[in-house]
TrEMBL record:
The keyword Hydrolase applies. Pfam families: Peptidase_M17, Peptidase_M17_N_1. One of its GO terms (biological process) is proteolysis. CDD domains: Peptidase_M17. Residues 305-312 form the Cytosol aminopeptidase domain. GO terms for molecular function: manganese ion binding; metalloaminopeptidase activity. InterPro entries: Leucine_aapep/pepB, Macro_dom-like, Peptidase_M17_C, Peptidase_M17_N_1. One of its GO terms (cellular component) is cytoplasm. This is Leucyl aminopeptidase family protein. It comes from Pontivivens nitratireducens. Belongs to the peptidase M17 family. The keyword Manganese applies. It comes from the Bacteria. Keywords: Aminopeptidase, Hydrolase, Manganese, Protease.
Length: 457
């Protein structure tokens, strides 16, 4: 789904963004009309102003007060699905109105998951505001929409094979190369934990390995958890917890969306995208609680819960990516419920030992309104992931500090990367918000795009 600005300027309808007490740049008649309709400029209010022929002459958009606006982001996007189909342009806005953020929000609001719906309503389109980089904003919006579509698609149409197809299409679009290691070949190429987690599914496990860019450029490696559905394995999830497990490949979807942005913007990096694509299913050959698995890195892992499978497939992919000593390695995964308990669905935590990288991530997250929150690799908890009969425990008992112990587990497989960060995403918007419909969510990738641009420009 390509999200684009309108170029039909002739019949564009003016949007006037106003706050309570502002001067409204409309006629006295239109002001009286708006006041009679109860429009005050509060956030969430809007008023269609009529022309003499009965068409829409202009629209007043309420911008509210700073305190209320601070509770959210991309507020202009809340109006896009409410306005009649047509073409609009921002004719006036108050001081401090961020045109880039609001225009991007409008584009993001145009995403809808309509694959299985016959009736597809027309959207209100926006003309790119003067001074905004239309091409760049459209690339970012399209990458974000790609992420959402991949997550929203049910596993019946987005299993490991279909996810491979999506990455193959991305590689063809950007003249990248894609290597796929499939099924039992994972054992022959020393990716045993990816094989163990995915072998019980009727769709074979696989590692997707995409490369793009100048081989001499700084190496940036993205690793995304591609568990296309998670039953919990033999530690079977209850039905209520399985309901949205199509989103358990949200880490890979976000990595794919970010990869699209990097390649479409032609950033000066050597990009590598690694996705272990599996389905955690139940069958006679499923891996079991109590099993001890050997990893690519050689570390042994005791399985104390087959529902803690994401860190297993990521561990082999991280070890593989780490072998070429990338300058930057970013790991994205819908990994732990503990992260959601700590920070909720909208604020993903991330972990890194690199204070400089953390500073860049924090600044970028604030600048582009793509929230992320740093949490620690807390060294005293290392003993919690050491079970005694193996090098590592995939699910420490007690349930304490689950997001941190999972991050510590992953860090054991990264030694050579110049900088490493792990992002524990939710990948889902539980209820619709401006520019974020209910369903699959892009999280952190706009901030990370900004980091990569600053780091390598």
């Amino acid at each position: 789904m390509n999200l684009t600005f309108s170029t039909e300027t002739d019949a564009a309808i003016d949007l006037h963004v106003v706050s309570p007490g502002d001067h409204w740049p409309v006629s006295a008649t239109h002001r009286k009309w708006a006041e009679s309709a109860g429009f005050s400029g509060a956030l969430g209010d809007f008023c269609l102003l009529p022309a003499e022929d009965g068409q829409i002459s202009a629209v007043l958009i309420g911008w509210g007060t700073g305190r209320l606006r601070a509770r959210g982001r991309m507020h202009l996007a809340r109006y896009a699905p409410l306005l009649p189909a047509g073409t609009y342009r921002i004719a006036s806005a108050p001081e401090g109105f961020d045109m880039d953020e609001q225009a991007l929000g409008w584009l993001l609001s145009e995403y809808s998951f309509d694959r299985y719906i016959a009736a597809k309503p027309e959207a209100a389109k926006l003309i790119c505001p003067e001074g905004c980089a239309a091409d760049r904003l459209q690339i970012i919006a399209t990458g974000a929409a790609l992420t959402q579509r991949l997550i929203d698609t049910p596993t019946s149409d987005m299993g490991p094979a279909e996810l491979e197809g999506e990455v193959r299409a991305l590689a063809q679009m950007h003249d990248a190369t894609l290597d796929v290691t499939l099924g039992d070949d994972l054992l022959g190429t020393n990716l045993p934990m990816i094989h163990a987690v995915g072998r019980a599914s009727t769709s074979a496990p696989r590692l997707l390995d995409l490369s793009w860019g100048d081989p001499e450029a700084p190496k940036v490696t993205l690793v995304g958890k591609g568990v296309c559905f998670d039953t919990g394995g033999l530690n079977l999830k209850p039905g209520a917890s399985m309901g949205i497990m199509k989103k358990d490949m949200g880490g890979s979807a976000n990595a794919i969306g970010l990869a699209h942005m990097i390649m479409a913007l032609d950033l000066p990096v050597r990009l590598r995208l690694l996705i272990p694509a599996v389905e955690n299913s139940v069958a006679g050959n499923a891996f079991r609680p109590g099993d001890i698995l050997r990893s690519r890195k050689g570390l042994s892992v005791e399985i104390n819960n087959t529902d803690a499978e994401g860190r297993l497939v990521l561990a082999d992919a991280l070890a593989l990516g780490d072998e070429e000593s990338p300058d930057l390695m970013l790991c994205m995964a819908t990994l732990t419920g503990a992260a959601r308990v700590a920070l909720g669905p909208d604020l993903p935590p991330y972990f890194t030992d690199d204070d400089g990288l953390a500073g860049m991530i924090g600044a970028a997250a604030d600048a582009v309104h793509d929230p992320l929150w740093r949490m620690p690799f807390w060294e005293p908890y290392e003993s919690m992931i050491e079970p005694g009969i193996a090098d590592l425990d995939n699910a420490p008992a007690g349930g304490m500090a689950g997001a941190i112990t999972a991050a510590l587990f992953l860090r054991r497989f990264v030694e050579n990367a110049g900088s490493f960060a792990h992002f524990d995403l939710y990948g889902w918007t539980p209820s619709a918000k401006p520019a974020r419909p209910k369903g699959g969510a892009h999280q952190g990738i706009r901030a990370l795009l900004s980091v990569i641009e600053r780091r390598y420009s």
